[in-house]
Amino acid sequence: xxxxxxxxxxxxxxxxxxxxxxxxxPLAVRMRPRVLDEVVGQQHLLRPGAPxxxxxxxxAAASVLxxxxxxxxxTTIARLLAxxxxxxxxxxxxxxxxxxxxxxxIDDARRRRDYRGQQTVLFIxxxxxxxxxxxxxxxxxxxxxxxxxxxxxxxxxxxxxxxPLLSRSLVLQLQSLTDDDVRELLRRAVADQRGLxxxxxxxxxxxxxxxxxxxxxxxxxxxxxxxxxxxxxxxxATTIDVPAVERAVTEATVRYxxxxxxxxxxxxxxxxxxxxxDPDAALHYLARMLxxxxxxxxxxxxxxxxxxxxxxxxxxTALQAATxxxxxxxxxxxPECRLALAQATVHLATAPKSNAVIVGIDEAMADVxxxxxxxxxxxxxxxHYAGAEKLGNAVGYxxxxxxxxxxxxxxxxPDSLVGKDYYRPSPHGGERVLGERLVKLRKAVRGG
Length: 448
Prior knowledge:
Helix content: 40-55%
Oligomer: single chain
Shape: extended
Number of strands: 8
Strand content: 5-15%
């Protein structure tokens, strides 16, 4: 059976190992785990009793949506699931397959079930790229377990997969590999007979460089290792060092140490450039972090902090922009989320600046720590329980909405803090207008 965008791979019976990949196959393919115990990372899914381990070892029949960043093992897990029992494995790419190919797979799965008693595992990569119509075409086959669907996506399936298909599948979220996970993969690839078989040595500094370059992506790490090894084996050398890695990947990203001085220096320069209203310098430092493989979630967190710390209410939309960028990072991921991070960076760099919010809250917290915690005025206390009125709670409280202005004279802070100004708006951006209004508000509230 052969159609465009579709290929079949017969998997071994349960308990057997897959046939070794050809020596000419890419290193990442040759090193693909053949059994569950070779899988690195994803311990939250693979520990004893966890859903994925039960599916692979117990042979449970459940469709699965694998959601996670690239290079975390989605295809590998699909193949391991196919190896349970004597299942037939078919893979489709959402980039090149349509309803016609889906129907062909489903028809073939029905024949295999009826005439051979064989179940079909259908692996769909990048399922989020399937249209609603294409996804709907799967529902009947998944519902009847005519096919066991294993779908992979880098996007949150809650937003990219139709609800009926989502409700019929077990959603498993894969996580980026840790540095230790990638380190284990690199060392295994260097030593293993399927990999480089000890033909080269990997210097510690080069290993760390490859780990940084990978950004938690196993495929990226092994591809870079193979390119560096090819460059070394073409000479008289036998050791992969940092220059060999740099030559192989053609990017000097290894000079950015996510755990060292460069990490702190670059993020510091990034924030100070935004604070200093230089969008061009800020974009430069953002690019350095992204090319180096910095975690985009870290950058997004810094932007959200900066929005309140250095822009504040001078531009009330700054925090919204930073938060929106963080959501794009979470829901979309790299490389597309770089656009949202760049947009938020330019927004914050060009926004009017004010640190009045951080100064206000820090002064208020300092007073509280120093004991300025006077009693709550009786008229502001809770009066929604029996006996509250006898204690004087909520007695005399004036409801602002009962006056046309919506503001009236009333004491809100404890006695010791009456007249204390924590928030002092700057004359920049939106705070200029806010400052003028605040003068009037304080006068009305304090009765001055």
